[in-house]
Amino acid sequence: MARYDLSEAEWRLVEPLLPNKPRGVARVDDRRVLNGVFYVLRTGSPWRDLPERYGPYTTVYNRYNRWAKAGVWLRIFETLAARSPQSMQMIDSSIIRAHQHAAGGKKGARITPSAVLVED
Known about the structure:
By secondary structure, this protein is mainly α. It contains four helices and no strands.
């Protein structure tokens, strides 16, 4: 099991919440696809850089979008939140204005090219 993969207990909670409409072509394993989605979301890597162990990145990406449009992710979140209300912790943040020197440049400075063109 890789770092971001679901454990058996987690998978047993999520599996019944996933849509299961049999179609003509056999589907790629939902657990593998879900682990691929979690990998991308946790690491921030592009879909194209998804490791091969999760299957084709296009399958993972398409199923992620399809489930989002069908409300599957919201259903999963609400079900898991209802099962563990103490896990719902919110973090409040404040916006603090950074000092003008924090970015390393002068306020209102003009950008000048390093090479100046000279006309003949």
